[in-house]
Specification:
The protein is mainly α. The chain has a domain of 59 residues. It contains 4 helices and no strands. The longest helix is centred in the last third of the chain and has 40 residues. The chain is elongated, with a radius of gyration of 18 Å. It starts with 6 loop residues before the first helix and ends with a helix.
Length: 92
Amino acid sequence: MERSVSIEERAVSLAHYIIDSKDTVRGTAKKFGISKSTVHKDVSERLLKINPGLAHEVRTILDENKAERHIRGGMATKLKYSHQNKDDRKIG
């Protein structure tokens, strides 16, 4: 019989994963098979009541990710178009 994980345990597991991997909310949600809003609620609201110190550590990582997201988006766009340009050169 599979044991269900409590919301508190899930919140702590998500927090440890984010701290260890420096992953984003989106990446964490995909890894755990849950929604982004669930991850965000667990580590932003529920974790504050369970373990404020851990919540602060996670908030630091999430703030870094938020500050860097425009850079990652720009890099992804640059990579996308560099692949398209290579394909255009092969065709032309």
